[in-house]
Amino acid sequence: MEIGKITAKSNLLSRTLQGNSIFSGLSGIAFIVTAGPLAAFLGLDAPVVLMIIGVSLLLYAVGLFQTAAREPLNRSLVVTAIVLDAAWVAGSWLLLLSGWLPLTVEGKWAVAIVAEIVSVFAILQYVGLRRMVK
Q: Rounded CA gap, 134 and 26, in Å?
């Protein structure tokens, strides 16, 4: 087995990476297209921040899709996706608990719900990876 490569294809891992890619891509498009109304909904004054996040999410979606399409899957890229998803979740909860931004109640709920969705992707990717390296 090559270092950093996963020899067998994991359906759970590949499908989770693909689902995460689709969710990230759609979220990125939504952030870009609806930056103004979304900023108002969240309670933010700067829609440009949401546009930057949207572009970043689109780039992340492309990376996830490419990672899922590799044969064999690259372990270090999968671990990177898990770490980035975990960082998104931790950052979201830090944002919510710190009160750094004047988020609306609805905005707080939206941030929390998205963080929970991303945490599910991170967990499923981790489980898929563990199944592959056993």
A: 33
At which residue do the structure tokens 């492309």 appear? 62
SS (H, E, C) the chain: CCCCEECCCCHHHHHHHHHHHHHHHHHHHHHHHCHHHHHHHHCCCCHHHHHHHHHHHHHHHHHHHHHHHCCCEEHHHHHHHHHHHHHHHHHHHHHHHHCCCCCCHHHHHHHHHHHHHHHHHHHHHHHHHHHHHC
15-58 tens-digit pLDDT:
999 999 999 999 999 999 999 999 999 999 999 999 999 999 99
Q: How far is CA 130 from CA 17, 25, 33, 55, in A?
A: 14, 26, 37, 31
Instruction: State the DSSP H helix or E strand holding residue 44, giving kind and residue range, or none if neither.
Output: none
Q: Among all chains, which residue has been given the structure tokens 């979304």?
A: 38
The model's pTM is 0.88
Query: What does the block give as tokens for 53?
Result: 């996040």
Helix 105-133 / helix 11-33 crossing angle, nearest 10 deg:
160
- Of 17, 36, 19, which is closest to residue 80 (Cα–Cα)? 17
